[in-house]
Amino acid sequence: MEFDSALRAKIEPSDTIKKRDVPEHCLITFFGDVIKRMLSEGRLKKVGDFKTCTVVLPIYETEFDGKTYWNCAGLLRSNWCVKKGYSGGALDCSIFSS
Questions:
Q1: Would you kindly state where each structural domain of the chain is located, as residue ranges?
Q2: What's the DSSP call for residue 41?
C-alpha cells in the first residue's frame, strides 16, 4: 500500500450523499415517556428516521433556549458498546439517510 497525497478520495461520499442542514446537537434519550409527552405537547416535529435492520426510530426536532436540537430514542445496547462510544456512533448514519 502506498501513500496517496491526493486531497480528493477516489470514492467520495459527497458525490452521492446530499449535504443536509442539521443542528449542531442531538439528544439521544432512553425515556420513551418523555418523547410521548413532548409529542403530545406539540414540542417535537418529525424530521426523519434512523433505520436499522431491526427497528426504525423517528428523529424529531425541537428548540430549547433558542437552539435547535434533534431528538431520537436511543438503542439499548450492552455496557461494552456504551463504554466504547457506540451508543451514539450508529446515529451518525441518520444524518445522511433520513
A1: 23-97
A2: T
